[in-house]
Write a structure and sequence with these properties.
Blueprint (H helix, E strand, L loop, with lengths): L1 H9 L8 E7 L8 E3 L1 E5 L3 E2 L17 E5 H11 L12 E4 L10 E4 L2 E8 L4 H6 L4 H4 L6 E7 L1 E4 L4 E3 H6 L1
Parallel strand pairs: 5-6
Antiparallel strand pairs: 1-2, 1-6, 3-4, 3-10, 5-9, 7-8, 7-11, 8-9
Length: 170
């Protein structure tokens, strides 16, 4: 069973080295996303400076951070001919080289922090309102990942992303 799990998680990684391309926070719902070069991930709370730091802004107690694959943002632009900047999906961390969907229910590290994937992050009305109606259909199943912070630490642009089972394997 453990070998299958390791194989499944390893196959989630693409040919590009898995890392962080962008970090964004918003001080409140609907506020413009601010781009950061690094951020403190606070266990049980969220990313410093983000709206999810306040429990009242979370849909659930563990909804502390959201991630999205840059490859899906690029695919939308290519498929529709519409520009979609990395901050427009309103996710906190934009990744490259890692498939996020298989990380639901798994622990993974980014920089010095450890996260746990909770559920897929489907596109919302605010995303569509601020961008294009087509995002609702295109990003279904590709809208990213909601996660909780298991162990806090600094997360920086360029930090690598690895699953817990991959770290054991090395």
């Amino acid at each position: 069973m453990q070998r299958n799990r390791v194989r499944r998680l390893s196959s989630a990684m693409s040919a590009r080295p898995p890392n962080v391309l962008h970090i964004f926070v918003a001080s409140k719902r609907g506020a413009a996303m601010s781009s950061l070069s690094s951020v403190e991930a606070i266990a049980g709370v969220g990313l410093a400076g983000d709206r999810y730091v306040e429990a009242k802004n979370r849909r659930g107690p563990d909804y502390e951070v959201t991630l999205i694959e840059s490859e899906n943002i690029e695919a939308f632009a290519k498929a529709t001919g519409r520009e979609l900047a990395p901050e427009m999906p309103r996710r906190n961390i934009v990744t490259v080289g890692v498939r996020l969907n298989p990380l639901v229910g798994e622990q993974f590290s980014i920089g010095h922090a450890v996260f746990e994937g909770l559920e897929l992050c489907e596109p919302c009305g605010l995303f569509a309102k601020r961008t294009y109606r087509e995002v609702l259909d295109f990003f279904h199943g590709k809208g990213g990942l909601r996660a909780r912070i298991v162990s806090g630490g600094l997360v920086k642009i360029g930090d690598s992303i690895s699953s817990k089972s991959e770290r054991r394997e090395q």
